[in-house]
């Protein structure tokens, strides 16, 4: 009996050791590209978690695999915020996926500086492939005169989406000035409808208001001078004024209750729009395609949008927009064993068929000469073509540490727990620490 | 610890093969603890002396700069205060409530067995699932709580549970209690069932009431368990992370920031791996110290 027990115990130890080994082997497989039985494997992360968008990517990858028998692509869809951390950890652990999405900007530049990203300039110049894309989009991923990623998903700018049924009911007109917008806010508030839906738990949605206020008040140069340390400062009066206007909006009750605790990823702000509890939402134009696939009825009957209005006396050109010309570029990791195949796969993601499918989704692919039949996309496209300047999201433009402080101070402004002055001082102090000047 | 363990066994049976067996069986645990616990702790302390973004191949040695920064970092102290608030409220809410439920279920006998399972359910859910669930429960427009208050015509009581910096922390603590009370409940039920039946019978003969049972028999005999529960709750509260991160990410505006969420954000969102390690190391020191103090404080009283 005793020896039997011993054997059982030994067996358990053995099984345990074996499972640990197997688990670590598996973990290895999930991240890195490994060759097994002659096929080349590419691990591809993306953050298009919307069902329809996910399918478009999968179809492109399937087309690629059908044409390239020897290559297997493992597609891993991830949630936006989870992705940001996961990529960081994977990069630090030298387990980066072969292909991953980026917005360009300071965060991406960190990876480039650390030698984690493959320089794809040569591939992009081959047969002048880069000419397929909007020049502005290519410039967003050009650093040190090299191209580091391919623009794929979407031309996405922040716009104010609104429920046109509600506007019609209360006889409201699309505002062309900020004062008109404030009047709409007051009217809606009086009717018991929240003017804006906002899900600011992750902080970047609220930051859009701040970016637009700064842009309309002082133009793009105010931020550029401060962020690039070229004679500017985050203590510029424009930043303070923007903070004050933001808090004025909060005090007016412009945002539906709960704004600082709701989660954008789980759709808590969109639900307010759908239910008619809130009339507007300032959000990236990707939301058009999200709504189209999530709530077709609302998309057809209620949805419309307008650009952020002009501020009287502001120096900024009201045609300028905040956003990105390639919401999700795809970059190749420098660890990738088959960069050529990976690049080829990315080309399938944005070939003519994929472009067509993306337009169907309600998106504007960042390629030249796209034909849009959908009236909403045509309208969006005309807003974009009028813009002389596209301001990349601050949280992507700034170096990570400063980006976090921007988002934190912004959320505190919304929560009325910090004065605009204290917020800009904190930004400037961190900027000095990060840049050393 | 290990040597003491081995010596105790040696006195019982000093066979060489027996000792070999002990070492063999301990080996996997020792290796696992070494690789996954001891090594990372040492690495954290080591990293806390560096400035490093977590991805670039080079680290910059800055000596104790991170530690000096930490001592002057108001956010860190604020998050430690939040941790302490959680400790106090957890001790005040979780343990008394758990004892009460345990006693009631025990008095109910077999008939109440079903409640043991029912009340234990929250403990079986993952923190992440609980976080997502309560995000919807707390939703100020569509949430369960708002809906109930509306039904009762108590709209004025409805609050912005997770979005208002002044109450967000308490909303989260309520969920933590909901999650952990079942654990302590089962813990106390087990302890109560260990109380010898004779004591009750003796008390019954002396004409004791139900309340006297509770205060004179159950509470004194539960004291060792209560102390253990307090230490567990103390340590758990100091390193709390998952639920808070899912529900509020430490927000709004830092209102629910804890040491662990702040560490996570510093290391993985702000790309300050060195500073994040400093926070982690500080947490290690604080939790270990608190644990040791609590351990000795309660042990003396037992003697």
TrEMBL record, chain A:
<dbReference type="InterPro" id="IPR006059">
    <property type="entry name" value="SBP"/>
</dbReference>
<dbReference type="InterPro" id="IPR050490">
    <property type="entry name" value="Bact_solute-bd_prot1"/>
</dbReference>
<dbReference type="Pfam" id="PF01547">
    <property type="entry name" value="SBP_bac_1"/>
</dbReference>
<protein>
    <submittedName>
        <fullName>Extracellular solute-binding protein</fullName>
    </submittedName>
</protein>
<feature type="signal peptide">
    <location>
        <begin position="1"/>
        <end position="29"/>
    </location>
</feature>
<keyword id="KW-0732">Signal</keyword>
Automatic annotation (TrEMBL), chain B:
<feature type="transmembrane region" description="Helical">
    <location>
        <begin position="213"/>
        <end position="235"/>
    </location>
</feature>
<feature type="transmembrane region" description="Helical">
    <location>
        <begin position="20"/>
        <end position="42"/>
    </location>
</feature>
<dbReference type="InterPro" id="IPR000515">
    <property type="entry name" value="MetI-like"/>
</dbReference>
<feature type="transmembrane region" description="Helical">
    <location>
        <begin position="273"/>
        <end position="297"/>
    </location>
</feature>
<keyword id="KW-0813">Transport</keyword>
<keyword id="KW-1133">Transmembrane helix</keyword>
<feature type="transmembrane region" description="Helical">
    <location>
        <begin position="167"/>
        <end position="192"/>
    </location>
</feature>
<keyword id="KW-0472">Membrane</keyword>
<keyword id="KW-0812">Transmembrane</keyword>
<feature type="transmembrane region" description="Helical">
    <location>
        <begin position="117"/>
        <end position="138"/>
    </location>
</feature>
<feature type="transmembrane region" description="Helical">
    <location>
        <begin position="86"/>
        <end position="105"/>
    </location>
</feature>
<comment type="similarity">
    <text>Belongs to the binding-protein-dependent transport system permease family.</text>
</comment>
<protein>
    <submittedName>
        <fullName>Sugar ABC transporter permease</fullName>
    </submittedName>
</protein>
<dbReference type="InterPro" id="IPR035906">
    <property type="entry name" value="MetI-like_sf"/>
</dbReference>
<dbReference type="Pfam" id="PF00528">
    <property type="entry name" value="BPD_transp_1"/>
</dbReference>
<keyword id="KW-1003">Cell membrane</keyword>
<feature type="domain" description="ABC transmembrane type-1">
    <location>
        <begin position="80"/>
        <end position="296"/>
    </location>
</feature>
<dbReference type="InterPro" id="IPR051393">
    <property type="entry name" value="ABC_transporter_permease"/>
</dbReference>
